[in-house]
Amino acid sequence: MAVRRFLSFRDFDWALLGLVLLLCAMSVLEVHSATVHTKFASFGTRQIFWIGAGMVGMFVLAKIDYHRLLDISPWLYGFFVLSLVAVKVAGHKALGARRWISFGSFQFQPSEWVKLVLILAVARYFANLGGRNLTWREIFKAFILVGVPMILVLIQPDLGTTLTYAPILVAGLFLGGINLKQAAILIVCGAILIGGAWSSGKILKPYQKARLTSFINPSNDPHGSGYQVLQSEIAVGSGGVWGKGLEKGTQTQGYFLPIPYTDFIFAAFSEEHGFVGAFFILLLYFLILMRLIQNAQTAADLPGSLIIMGIVAVLTFQIAVNVGMVIGLMPVTGIPLPLMSYGGSSVLFTFLALGVAMNVRMRRFVN
Amino acid sequence: MALSINRGEKLSTIKLTFVQYGILLMMLGLAAGLWRLQVLNVESYRVLAEQNRIRKEPILAPRGKLFDRESRLVVDNYPSVTCFLVREQSRNVDADLPIIAHGLDLDLDQLRATLHHYRSQPGYQPIPIKQDVTADEQAFIAAHRNELPELETIDEERRLYPRDGFAAHLIGYVGEVSEDDLNNPRFAYYEPGDVVGKAGVEETYDELLRGQDGSREVVVDSRGREVGYFGIEHAQPGQDLRLTIDNDLQRAAELALGDRNGAIVAMDPRNGEILAMVSRPSFDPNAFAVKIDRTEWNKLITDPDHPLLNKAIQAQLAPGSTFKILMSVAGLQEGIAQNMHIVCNGGWGPYGYYHHCDEHHGAVDIYNAIPYSCDTFYYMLGDKLGIDRIVKYADEFGYGQKTGIDLPGEQAGLMPSPDWLIKNFHHRWYPDETLDVSIGQGAVEATPIQLARIIGGIASGGHMVRPHVVFPNELPADFYKSLQDSFPGTGDAYVPIDPANWDIITNGMFEVVQPGLYHTAGADGLPGIDFGGKTGTAQQMSHEALEKTNKGRATFPNVWFVGVTPRRNPELVVAVLWQDGEFSYYPARIGAKVVEAFVNKKRRLAGNLPPEKAAAPVDVGAVWTEPDSKPGAKSASAPRIHSGHFYVDGNGVVAENVPAAKARPQHEARPASAQPDTNSRPGSNARRGTNPRPATPVRNASELAALTPERRKEQ
């Protein structure tokens, strides 16, 4: 394609960025509140640095044509699958799981990056199929594409991240042209497989199973797996309509809430800012997602739409699972809340993903 | 490669709209979940959050202290720290155990055994590993909080009892409330884990002594670390009680009985106040204040001499010749005994079975029957009276009935009667049996407290009183009422005795301890003290059976002495029981010592006796209050109260420069403000100066007994 592409930051989605930064401000506020009386008191400031770094990454990624990214996505895919194997062999063991590779002082957690690479790879795969009806062979290939990294991450073991790969595949299949009959068959097969994996006891570790089941009745085991769910529900519920005020959440400040600055930050926020605050956060998420879908709709081509919809799928899944967990509707899986939870990997991934989405939007009039 | 990407297609708008509605639905679902928690159920979660961060910690009410009749401290509380181990909080308990054992001065194997014992308990269950943790060990725990997070301490107030079982049976002891007690409606106000009185005054007056526990609302984090506290509901301390016992007389009685198996009751027969109560063998109530060792407990309950039994109120034994006082009252009041002039030829056997007398007393009448304790006279008197009239008098004076003393477990004794015999043994009363009853044998049984009440009452002209160990007018009225209902007994009673007969009996009792042929305790009189009494020797086996066996001490008769001073309208009655004591003038000598101590104290207080010569310091136990040498000065200067391990000299003044015992933590005197400078008391200073010898620690009752006045004179 020798056509010179016209692009301008005027087409950058400044409204989306505004919503995202508003959410980030909430995140910094709550991370600070939840950690100010602990030894992690610097996390609020560090979160600002991560957001800054994420913004830089986002603008850089926005500059690179997403078609270029799609072109190199098979290489990226291969590289990250290999690095996942490397993590398993030579990784850093933290909290009983190998998820990190150290390069000197720099620690590298490939499983977060794999998410982005998978979004690209899946978008590329289904875009090439052209949106027509899928054959079983094509569906099977898609499963292999997503399944290999999933299994590699699952054996790290990191159940939460593994699960976030699934919506990429689901979104790809749904938008890529699976028909109703195939979907029904897949759901039935999936149910049988999951049931088998559950009862075989080899794929999921007991603590993973316990975490998955304790949300159904957390009071059965108030000091074990159910403890986190129960404490989280107490935090959210006791917040009431208006909340207890910043740095005044007894559950958050009193160490009752587990890790209130990462996985349970929504509980901490809900306790200190009440239903009003929590609803505001949900509203922000909703607006961001709608804005992204609108971008997908206005994208110049199918792969651009598929990329954005992959991002939407991952973000939606993370929000649903994390908020659901916090309010006791979902099991504890260790999935962070995008843009809210403290943590470099999570913040960087989200901003880079948004960068790719911006990328697509900026090139919507190019062709 | 890029060429292969299909750019012509677009995503269908329907699918994207579908996704949008899906996301909207999800968001609404999450919002509904939030609504459910934060709006609909906010109150219940608020309650849960409050419970989460506010833990109610009990503040244990200090138990009421016990004082003697002169407000000298007898039973105190002391702060004590118990160390617990919480396995859940440890990374590796087994690896820590040697360090813990070393730091807390515990035996490693025993510590392991303790943990093994609790192995089936959940990990968060605190396991008590050491009680009475010393300051050094507390410092060890505090310093290793990070390395040994499994160690926790709890502050408690513990009971501090006098050592060597001083008044142990009267005071009783405390322990954790048992499962059975909790099911008993009487203990409705108890909760599991409560410390309750288990015997003696501690049990009877538990309701007053225990106070009301308070609580503190502690703000904690989820690791249970205290970050502050909210409300505080102060504990109401238990009521202090003033006992009727006199420490000086109690101590004299303890020393007099020594380690002989028996009991002493000293009572004021005018009002029933118990001045001293001793039972032997004794036990250390402090062993119960801390959790009692199993082997120690087994030793206590399997001891054939029953150390836990308060023999003063629970030993039911044949009263022997002390019963002859009642026989004399009956015989004189019925007009029979005055006219009896008999010849004792060593016994009498009108019903085919010969009943022995100890001596051939020759001519005996009522005037010398009491000092001789002539069985022949009382066989004949009993035969003339008949069992019905004996039973009538015995019932009136209270044989076979509880006295109603405010101590748990009092026994009623037994007064046999024809009705009783038919009901229990289904045969008629045989007149020969009356002869045995007449000398206080046969089926007759009495307790020391009963004898003190009855014989004190007879010496008081028939005015009998209800014995008690706490001043009733210092108790809440409704409590006293329920107390009287809980401890039914003969109580206060008046059985008129003709003054002439009263004279005959009390004079006879005086003669018992005066020198004279056949006088049973002729060597035990106290010159210058109007003192009378009656001995008793109750055989445990018949003369014939005794000759066939050689079972040693266990076959020796139980011996009694009940003494009064002065002989009429006495101020003191003392009942002494020595089981297997063999000769009745032994308990008479013991009783005389108590009487002597009582009279000497009165005289000293009245200034009629020079201060007692200083004697070797005696280790009296954990709590001691120095006697005030100045009469009437009690209110002017607070008494010196000591608790801890120390020694007192013969005047009860605490000796200085005595090394503190290592076995027990030293508890400083309290209250500090009530401790005047000793130099301002020249009297005590001077006496202390005359003490040439260093103190010898006394560890048990037998050594205490060895420090009798005779031995002190040698020093």
Write the layout of secondary structure elements.
The complex is a heterodimer of chains A (367) and B (715).
Chain A: H1 14-35, H2 43-63, H3 66-90, E1 92-94, E2 97-103, E3 106-108, H4 110-129, H5 136-154, H6 159-176, H7 180-200, H8 206-214, H9 225-239, H10 250-253, H11 265-297, H12 302-326, H13 344-362
Antiparallel strand pairs in A: 1-2, 2-3
Helix pairs in contact in A: 1-2, 1-11, 2-13, 3-4, 3-5, 4-5, 4-6, 4-12, 4-13, 5-6, 6-12, 9-11, 11-12, 12-13
Chain B: H1 13-40, H2 42-53, E1 54-59, E2 66-67, E3 73-85, H3 93-103, H4 108-117, E4 127-130, H5 135-143, E5 151-160, H6 168-171, E6 174-176, H7 179-183, E7 195-197, H8 200-204, H9 206-209, E8 214-220, E9 226-233, E10 241-242, H10 247-257, E11 262-268, E12 273-280, H11 286-289, H12 294-302, H13 311-314, H14 323-333, E13 342-344, E14 347-348, E15 355-356, E16 362-364, H15 366-372, H16 375-397, H17 418-425, H18 431-438, H19 448-459, E17 463-464, H20 477-486, E18 493-494, H21 499-512, E19 532-538, H22 543-548, E20 558-565, E21 572-578, H23 585-605, E22 618-625, E23 641-648, H24 682-689, H25 701-706, H26 709-714
Parallel strand pairs in B: 2-10
Antiparallel strand pairs in B: 1-8, 2-3, 3-4, 3-5, 6-7, 8-9, 11-12, 11-21, 13-16, 14-15, 17-18, 19-20, 20-21, 22-23
**Strands ordered across the widest β-sheet of chain A:** 1-2-3
Please identify the oligomeric state.
heterodimer
How much helix is in the residues of chain B? Answer: 25-40%
**Strand composition percent of chain A:** under 5%
Look at the helices and sheets of chain B and give the structural class: alpha+beta
> Main β-sheet of chain A: number of strands, strand sense, barrel status?
3 strands, antiparallel
User: How many helical stretches of chain A?
Assistant: 13
**For the terminal residues of chain A, how far apart are their CA atoms?**
10 Å
Q: What's the shape of chain B?
A: elongated
What fraction of residues of chain B sit in β-strands? 15-25%
Question: What would you report as the Rg of chain B, rounded to the nearest angstrom?
Answer: 34 Å
Q: Spans of chain B of 5+ residues with little confidence (pLDDT < 50)?
A: 1-7, 628-639, 657-715
Strand segment count of chain A:
3
